[in-house]
Amino acid sequence: MESRPLRYFVAVAEELNFTRAAERLGISPPPLSRAIRQLETEMGVALFERTTHTVALTPAGTVLLAEARIALDALQAAERRSQRAAAVEPKLILAVKADGDAGLLEPILARFASEPAALPVAVRLCGWSEQPRLLRQGEADAALVHEPFDRTGLDSERLIAEPRVAALAAAHPLAARDRLALVDLGLRPDGVHQYIEKSRSEGRDLAQLLTLVALGGPTPLLPASVASRYPRPGVVYRAIPDAPPSVLVIAWPQQSRSTATAALIRAAASVADTVRGRHVA
Description:
By secondary structure, the chain is of the alpha+beta class. Helix content is 44%, strand content 19%. It has helices spanning 3-15, 18-25, 29-43, 59-85, 105-113, 131-136, 192-200, 206-214, 224-229, 259-280; strands spanning 48-50, 55-57, 92-97, 121-126, 142-146, 154-162, 164-169, 221-223, 235-239, 246-253.
């Protein structure tokens, strides 16, 4: 199966409209429709249910969409990584959410620099939960990311688990208490991750989110390290002992054979071991 029919299929599957998909691909609808029918003939299955006014995925189409995205990402990633490997000055790209490294980024880079296989590192700052996509598409070689995340095509190693704190406006009624429970925020343990994702949608980054908190906005649950690293007027942090921990991992593509990436993973694990040991002591 060639990549072009897959790209055509994905465009139609995401748009569920042949005209919009054709515009997105820069072609006209008739050849797109012919290409999809040819793909269905070759596979021996119907990928779409078509009526005069609607286009919908069949069960076979739903499965192919998930697999096609992985395959196209892998092809794109292979091209990008090959280009970087052939560069005059090869480098390793580490994706990190700004303020989402639990204070480990600089120690990891320092430890990695002492590794025999070390390369120069370009830190790719990204938004909430963008790291898995960057890894799968070859735009990063490794990433620091908090669980849970889409692990498709990725391996990871756990670094640290931190208690969570709630960030509240100083004038919030709950701010007078030393610690809180999930029930105080109307939460149950199985709803914490959904609540965190909703809080993230309130602000593009931590600075913006904390500004909204100070103005009486959302009450996000954050890793405990944020409280010591980012004190802010008008915002207080309160421990929530019954909240599940915030887990930071280093992730990388499963197919990676890079000795530099392996060295970075070792450096990250070593720094995390030191941090955990310090906390135990």
